[in-house]
Design a protein that fits this description.
The protein is mainly alpha-helical and 200 residues long. It is built from eight helices and two strands; from the N terminus they run H-H-E-E-H-H-H-H-H-H. Its main location: membrane.
Amino acid sequence: MSIAATTPPDYLLRPWSGTWARDVALVGGAVLLTALLAQVAIPVPGSPVPVTGQTLAVILVGATMGMRRGVTAMGAYVLLGGLGLPVYSDGAGGISVVAGPTGGYLIGFVVAAAVMGRLAERGWDRTPLRTLALGVFGQALIFAVGVPWLALVAGLDPAEAVAAGLTPFIVGGLIKGAIAGMLLPSAWRLVRREPRGTLD
C-alpha cells in the first residue's frame, strides 16, 4: 500500500481544522460568509430567483473546507435558514423558503459542497484553470437541483424553468468561477504548504 493511499486528503483549511472547537469555528465562519454574500442580491425580472453571492460562498466553502466540513457548513446554513434565521437572500428565512421555488438551489448548495470538497481534496483547487472548472461544475450542480425544483414548485415547463432559473445566471457563474480561479491557487501559494497525497 502506497503512502499516498494512506495519507489523509488535503484541502486548504486542513491545518485549521481537526479539533471540535476549530471545526465549529470553521463551520460557523462558513455559514456567516454565505449569509453575508446572500445579502448581495439583484432581482431578475420575470424570475423568482435573484442573482446573489451565495454560489460564490458555496465555491469557496466547498473548495477550502473539504467534503465533510463543507457539507456540514452548507447543511447548517440551510437548516438555520429553514428554522427562521434571516440568512437567505434579502434577509429571508423560514421553511417556506426551503419549500418554495428557490428551495432547490439551497439543497443544491449541499450537493455542490460535497462534490467540490471531494474534488478539492484531490487537488482540483491548485491551479487557476482547474479551479475555474471546479467552480463552474459546482454551480452546474446547484442548477441541476434548483431548476427542476423551480419547474415543479412554480408550475413551469422545462423551457420556462431554464429561462427563469438558469440562463440569466450563466455569465455571473463564469465570473464567480473566475474569482475562485484567482483566489484559491493564490491562497495555496500563500500558505506555502505541499499538499498531501490525494488518492485517499
